[in-house]
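#dry-run=false #mode=assembly
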Amino acid sequence: MSEILVSFRDVTKSYDGRVPVVAALNLDVHRGEFLTLLGPSGSGKTTTLMMLAGFEDPSSGSIALEGTRIDTVPPHRRGIGVVFQNYALFPHMTVAQNLAFPLSIRRLPKAEIAARIARALEMVRLPAFGDRKPSQLSGGQQQRVALARALIFEPKLVLLDEPLGALDKQLREELQAEIRHIHARLGVTMVYVTHDQAEALTLSDRIAIFHEGRIQQIDTPEAVYERPANPFVAGFIGESNRLTVQVVDTTRLRLEDGSLLATLPHALPPGTAALVSIRPERVVIGAQGPGNAVVEEVVYLGDHCRLRLAHAGRADFIAKLPRQDAMAVPTPGTRITIGIPADAVTVFPAG
Amino acid sequence: MRRTNWLAALLIAPLLLLILGSFLVPVGLTLFRAVQDREVAQALPETSAILAAWDGQGLPPEAAFAAVARELGAALEARRIGDVAQRMNFARTGMRSTLLRTARAAERLRAPYAASLVALDARWGQAETWLLLRSAGGPVTSLYLLRAMDFTQTPDGGVVQAPTDERLYRTLFLRTFGISLLVTAICVLLAYPVAYTIARLRAPWSSIALTLVLIPFWSSVLVRTTAWFVLLQREGPVNGALLGMGLLEAPAQVIGTRIAVVLALVHVLLPFAILPMHSVMTRLDATYLRAAASLGANGMQRFLRVWLPLSLPGVLAGGAMVFLLAVGMYTAPALVGGDRDQMVAWFIANFLNRDVNWGMAAALSAYLLAMTGAIVALARILTGGMVGARG
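#status=ok
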């Protein structure tokens, strides 16, 4: 799992020679992993993918595949499968002809091509669709064919550029499951670009979070969610309450209203300003009665209730109340007591 | 629902009437002239009636001689003799002088007319002359349509090849379609790389390049073709440059040759090939090329297997446009071509302007229309399998 397949070394990409789209990128992709490049639009994630595919040239730095530099190799000799957001199936060819394309380029024997097409269509559960034209397929079917086409020549690496971006939610979830199964079954390395954090958490072995051309954090989904490396990651992945605080000592912080907040030990010097991030679902809702928070708004979401609270001098403190116990949902205006476990508080230096 | 249809029909009615009135009706009437035959029946009604009843054996009765003498004289008075003479002379060369001579002598002729007419002109003693007159009695004739394909009708109604020195039109059609196909092929080959380059240019440059393609449209075909005349003439700059460089020993005669015609046509028609190709290519998603590259296709394979088939509808549209325009081209060949380089349009114009022979002009037009339609339909059928792809 830890064998390195792809490595980016000090890769910078700039279109105008001044503003870098990707800045001093160092990234290793492990063999067999599912790595997601996640970030808002313009964060450099797609540019990174396109440099790996060969459609963009790095301004400086190097990219290696299995230890061999590939940044000067033209895309058609890199042997990397690519799935595009708009599917990019050739409209003048049938599904089978699309699948045959990379194989006939590689001059495989006809019988071998036919066998592989049959297997590939079976894999994406479209066995009877070989003679259809892409225009006769739905969006989800087209993307399954595109996935099969990117896999059929057995590349070591498959790149997926927001492949599910054009599909509706239900189809997207269905295809996520399918991609996960295919990845597990074939063991092929996949690098996936998306701006949808839920998709990234669902699919990935590791997630690289991009912002302003740099990787903010690269780790497992659980780690980036539970232990965000900086305020950007904390804010981008999932929901979080962000509060400005004063450091009292290694385990205590003072909130804006003067109350104290306990944390796990941290290394910030006492007296300095800091930023904390608290996940809404980690907030413990206590008993009603005199307490440290006032319920401002309640939103019923089925599996949980979302409470907007006035707490610690803020009116936008969010807490999530799971619907597992018989506890009554507090009504707006009620005073309640909330508790914040020390391990639910992530502390960052301010600024 | 029905009300909406009725309203829609009402809204497009003016357009339909305009098309009908300004296009279909005139074209139909013109094409009808290819078979219409009324000059003789109008000018010589009695003669036509007598000849229609005649059995065609030997010579017609004396009444026919008398009628033709009288009616020719009357036609001369009424200034209608020209039409008849033109019509009959087209059927048989020499008939013009016979008819005019008879018309002028009509007053002096005395019965028996069978004798006095033959004395005036021996043609009246030949059965062929009378058979020709009878077959010109109308109201329709196949004379023009046959002649436009180098056939002619014998006096007894059979169809034979026209005399060798009158055969002309089959060669003319072959030449017209040959030149047009050559021009189409050259235009497509030249336009494709141009359209491709423009389609791949970045933002400001692509529209600048497209404007350069369109600039020739700002001047008339006449001006552009005349420019070729200036360039290519014996004392023109092209000859001057070639002589100056020592590539030629004597000035080349290009004007009046097939080369000049093809050159001028390609120049005039090239934008019509570039524009449809460009419009198809700019709408082609460059992701297809990236996808092909990621699947292992090199530059040539990407072009041949992805870009070319996807841009083919533009090639066909551009080619069809150039071919259709070339087939009907008049100005360019007329200006820079020689006598042996003229195309059908030039002959149609000549029949209209010089010979005032509407029948031949209409017959040539009808064939041109039919053949062009057939070629375009054939091209559509042949390429249908390739281009019929949905999406």
